[in-house]
Amino acid sequence: MTSEDQRTLHKSALPTLDLIASGKVRDVYRVDDRHLLIVATDRISAFDCILPDPIPRKGEVLTQLSVFWFDFLKSTTPSHFVSADVNSYPASLQRYAPQIAGRSMLVRTAVMTPIECVARGYLAGSGWKEYRASGTVCGIPLPVGLRDGDQLPEPIFTPAHKATSGHDENISFSRMVEVTGQDLAQRLRSLTLQIYGKAAAYASTRGVILADTKFEFGFIDGELSLCDEVLTPDSSRFWPAATWNPGGPQLSYDKQFVRDYLETLSWNKQPPAPQLPPNIIDKTSVKYLEAYHALTGKQL
After folding, report:
1. Which CATH number is 111-219+228-243's, of 3.30.420.40, 1.25.40.10, 1.10.1740.10, 3.30.470.20?
2. pLDDT 10s digits, 175-204
3. Alpha helix segments (H runs only) across the chain
4. What's the pTM?
5. Quick one: pLDDT at residue 48?
6. 111-219+228-243: same fold as 3-109+258-294?
7. Helices 58-72 and 182-205: angle between axes, nearest 10 degrees
8. Counting beta carbons within 10 angstroms of the beta carbon of residue 33, is it exposed (0 to 12), middle (13 to 18) or buried (19 or more)?
9. CATH assignment of 3-109+258-294?
């Protein structure tokens, strides 16, 4: 079974709508010339493979956290977000209200930039691996002696070129300038770090560390706008501040339970992905719900 086959197992079937994209988690439908419907499924991926077992309520968490952050950031940046209230959706979507309530967003169509904008405030993941090898993260020199999980002297911007399949390619800022032009590159870097700083400061008041995150931007009627998902456990590393202990991997609000389990198997990390035991599915679902509560103070 290929990743595409697995994706169809859990896709949001809205047969009268035009499905224009189906990613690892989200299905995107064209509503009209100016609007799209983004539906977050309960699909989960690891090591670039979609797993056969959905994580209950994951799509709700991703959607409702994005809605929270779009509202929080509305004074900082325009966005593509229109509404997550199905009662306000166009008539063509009303028949699907029970399926999409809580896990969908009506958004404006945007001309997307080809750059994934990453902000890193802490050393982790691939950044830690590169630093350990060369003392840099995405080619940016960092002080010697940092540990896995350490806070960086200041947040850094590390762009990536979007790939049509597989991993995005980390690129230097100078290479980004070649792709986007100097003016847009500087605007994207500035806005990314501004959003990261505001979100990280808020998260700290909730006892949460925003270690790193990625954003996508597009143009709506010529205006640079924040798009896609925003500051979710799928696009960000969130760590409980109370357990932060540099020197190794950190406890996090994400799918680490899934990754850790898969690492115990003799799986080659190619499709088809193995099934998940019920306890791993349940723990992962709880972790996503905990992330929502930790950041918003509300129960979903």
Report:
1. 3.30.470.20
2. 999 999 999 999 999 999 999 999 999 999
3. 3-9, 58-72, 97-100, 125-134, 173-180, 182-205, 256-263, 278-296
4. 0.93
5. 84
6. no
7. 110
8. exposed
9. 3.30.200.20
Using CA atoms, how far residue 9 sits from 105, 166, 246, 280, in Å, is 22, 20, 40, 19
Largest CA distance in the chain: 59
Give the number of other Cβ atoms within 10 Å of residue 20's Cβ. Answer: 11
All residues at 6 or more sequence positions from 153 whose CB lies less than 8 Å from its CB, including other chains: 142, 143
pLDDT tens, position by position, 273-295: 999 999 999 999 999 999 999 99
Per residue in 29-56, pLDDT (tens digit) is: 999 999 999 999 999 999 889 999 999 9
d(CA 68, CA 296): 8
The DSSP code for 139 is: T
- pLDDT at residue number 165: 56
The burial of 220, by beta-carbon neighbours within 10 Å (0-12 exposed, 13-18 middle, 19 or more buried), is given as middle
Report the distance separating Cα 214 and Cα 231, nearest Å: 8
Place of tokens 């209950």: 56
49-96 tens-digit pLDDT: 999 999 999 999 999 999 999 999 999 999 999 999 999 999 999 999
Q: Is 256 helix (H, G, I), strand (E, B) or coil?
A: helix
The whole-angstrom separation of Cα 206 and Cα 272 is 39
160 closest CA partner among 115, 126, 195, 196: 115
Closest-CA residue to 254 (of 294, 277, 231, 284): 284
